[in-house]
Amino acid sequence: MKTIQLRTEIPGPHSRALMARREAAIPRGPGNATPIFAAHAEGATIEDVDGNRYIDFAGGIGCLNVGHRSPRVTAGVREQLEKYLHLCFAVTPYEGYVAVAEKLNKLTPGNFPKKTILINSGAEAIENAIKIARAYTKRPAVICFEDAFHGRTLLTMSLTSKTHPYKAGFQPFASDIYRIPFAYPYRNPSGTSSADFAHHLEDAFKRSVAPESVAAVIAEPVLGEGGFVVPPRDYFKLLQNICRKHGILFIADEIQSGFARTGKWFASEHFGIEPDLITTAKSLGGGMPIAAVTGRAEIMDAPGPGSLGGTYCGHPLSCAAALAAIETIEKEGMLARSVAIGEHFEKRAHGWQKKWSLVGDVRGLGGMCAMELVRNAQTREPADTETKEIARYCYEHGLILITAGTFNNVVRILVPLVVSDEQLTEGFDVIEAALASVAERKQAVLSHA
Ligand SMILES: Cc1ncc(COP(=O)(O)O)c(C=O)c1O
């Protein structure tokens, strides 16, 4: 097994010095998954301020499907730098914004007239999607899911499911939000078919909120922060049919699952659905901040002029980056690459599952893949501390890896899709060594007990 060469102990002296400054100057709130400070990034690798090189399996939490400093993206941004930086689309419009909207209208699922607004972040996209849905339906309520993550603003935090660290201490939440269980087969012993899960929506109409009060149901087609949970294939079709019966809009949050992450442009395509509204962000910008809401033209036109937007929304540099990122996904065969990465992971992870009972579930769609770690294969007790130890082992051995899951026990793969086969194998070798280290130490504790 090849190991990644590191120059210093991790974190090295320069990272440690920067961390001391960070701790003095910045509050705890914006947490850090690693104590490593970056100096340079390229493709699927990051170099830190001490000269250590890492393979990056986190991709800025799914923002870098086209890779760090993707050549088309940097060229597009550079070219835009020479023209203008900020105009404000609400004051003096510019072509880049229009071109990104046209692209998204074409790429998103659904062969019907669409329109798109651009904003700055994923949370802002969700906020706007809910505003638009309420304006169109003239209804107040929103139904969301357990294990969902939609952001950290007041409304999106209210839609998010996880208490610590996202919600605790920040009450009161936004009103008229109702939550139902998501289709999470591994953690649902009482049935795993789509119908077993979809009935929760009908039940909510009896138990919690009348359907005629509901503007929208919002779901991530594959849960992101909730642990890369993939529902059964006809689940969303069932949900969308129920929504249509009651004049409720279906919003797909594709912020983490979009732009080739799952092997298709959007994860919704795997489920054969055409959402009324789709929110995107992250890899849309190829490393620059930009987000969007795309939807049926008549729905998108419900709010009046001046009611949507913001000073920096659809920034010219971000539009240039988004156009370049989309072109890169189109021209570099990234949909197929994502599928191949998923297959490679699945093969390795199933091997690990056979070897170590710690690996409870292996799942994913294309390059959006994960494994859920448990202390006991029968009880499925979440192995949260072990998961943390694995992430730590990885960054100490040259691999940046992040975790997920309501129970903090999921290892997720968000590697840039430009990763080479060699880098991918190297990264999986580090994960394997981490699993061996944690599983074997646990075994040693058990045999001493
Ligand atoms: C599915 C999903 N929705 C919304 C958000 C919020 O996006 P942002 O952090 O850009 O506000 C995220 C971020 O991780 C996400 O994964």
Identify the notable features of this structure and list them briefly:
449 residues; alpha/beta; Aspartate Aminotransferase, domain 1; Aspartate Aminotransferase, domain 2; 2 domains; seven-stranded mixed sheet; four-stranded mixed sheet; 16% strand; binds pyridoxal-5'-phosphate
Commentary on this structure:
- The chain is built from 13 helices and 15 strands.
- The chain folds into 2 domains: 165 residues, Aspartate Aminotransferase, domain 1, CATH 3.90.1150; 261 residues, 3-Layer(aba) Sandwich (Aspartate Aminotransferase, domain 2), CATH 3.40.640.
- It is an alpha/beta fold and 449 residues long.
- The strands form 3 sheets. Strands 4-10-9-8-7-5-6 form a 7-stranded mixed beta sheet, sandwiched between helices.
- Pyridoxal-5'-phosphate binds next to helix 5.
Ligand kinds: pyridoxal-5'-phosphate
Approximate shape: globular
Number of domains: 2
* CATH fold annotation of the largest domain: Aspartate Aminotransferase, domain 2
Q: State the CATH class of the largest domain.
A: Alpha Beta
Number of helices: 13
Tell me the radius of gyration.
22 Å
What percent of residues are in strands? 15-25%
The overall average pLDDT, rounded, is 96
- Name the CATH architecture of the largest domain: 3-Layer(aba) Sandwich
Helix-strand pattern: HEEEHHHEHEHEHEHEEEHHHEEHEEEH
Number-wise, the strands total 15
Strand order, largest beta sheet: 4-10-9-8-7-5-6
Proportion of residues in helical segments? 25-40%
End-to-end Cα distance, whole Å, is: 32 Å
